[in-house]
Amino acid sequence: MTQVPSDVKKTQVAIIGAGPSGLLLSQLLDLAGIENVVLEQRSRDYVLGRIRAGVLEFGTVELLREAKVNARMDRQGLVHEGFYIAANDHLHRINLKHFTGSSVMVYGQTEVTRDLMDARDAAGGLLIYEAEDVSIHELDTSAPLIRYKYQGELQELRCDYVAGCDGFHGVSRKTIPSTVLREYEREYPFGWLGLLSETVPFHELVYVRHPRGFALCSQRSKTRSRYYLQCSLTDKVSDWSDEMFWEELKRRLPGELAGDLDTGPSIEKSIAPLRSFVAEPMRYERLFLAGDAAHLNNPLGGMGMNGGIHDAVNLVEKLVKVWHGEPLESMERYQRQRRKVALETVQAQALRNRAILNATDPKQRADYYDDLRATVDDPLRHKEFVMRSSMITSLRELETVE
What we know:
By secondary structure, the chain is an alpha+beta fold. It has helices at residues 20-31, 44-48, 58-66, 71-76, 96-100, 109-122, 171-175, 242-252, 255-258, 304-323, 332-358, 362-377, 379-389, 392-398, and strands at 13-16, 36-40, 55-56, 78-80, 82-87, 90-95, 104-106, 126-129, 132-137, 145-150, 153-158, 161-164, 182-197, 206-208, 215-219, 225-231, 266-280, 283-284, 287-289, 295-296. Helices cover 38% and strands 27% of the residues. A hairpin with a 2-residue loop joins strand 5 (82-87) and strand 6 (90-95). The longest helix is centred in the last third of the chain and has 27 residues, at 332-358.
């Protein structure tokens, strides 16, 4: 881990937050010859201890390869050419490979973060963990100022630009004046109970729609499984023993899967409240928001980490052009492109899924099942669904946004 000595007072880009978006941004800027410093409030171990998403879309995998952080991912990641949707006690396979020529990769966000940290350390990247009381100043000047405390000492860092990659609760978005910042948030009337276990997972991901609630069967490796159950907002982790979790999951699975479910003690168990969130603007003066600082998606829509990684890549592309002479105002295209994805792809998919889960009328449920079956059986509808859900359509549409 590289620490910034107290005499380092200037950099080109100050990055707030050492999650996947911030670290990838740092890596790509370094490859482009642009100096940067990453400030992270938490310790390295804390960041690596967070259990997060585990599915990388095809485009995300390619971007990580371009960033030269793919060696371990390509060795250990699990390639999936499709996934299953379970409804009415039946399984329907969505064929990614056949209709798009691509696939997804199961590789946990923790592992992506570790690979990026290792890459930044190997390159001599400037990262400061446990940077406390970070504050951002003078954004309307050509040299914004970052103040923070490190080991009890007040530090100052001047930069040309600030990238806010510090998540939903971070300081970056809150730095934008309230007269300018607009926030759109939707909370969901249920929780998301997750369990991690050293058990053999199903061979492909399974998304389950059931009258008792949604369920997801995912994985982190060939011997480590990640499962989720929709639960009540009032539930606590202590309400759910491992045995209760496994029994409830079996109730929601089709019979052919329930009998094959490998169960065992949990390694980690947690309940998360679900919300969707989009902030506007994503650019204010010389501050740019990326990842969860700009748009927070709940697991029902997926693509949270994938969207943040795409933010970072898009932002680097625009910053490099500015360094080569384009006016700062051209950075507005970053905001227009990425906000379009956040609203029309990620959030829209989450809202569609929410509507499906909240449907209680038997006819609504039957109509959904008929539509799902028709989508699976019709090659054109099947392809359109896959292209949209894997972000391929949204990426192709971005270049039309001026």
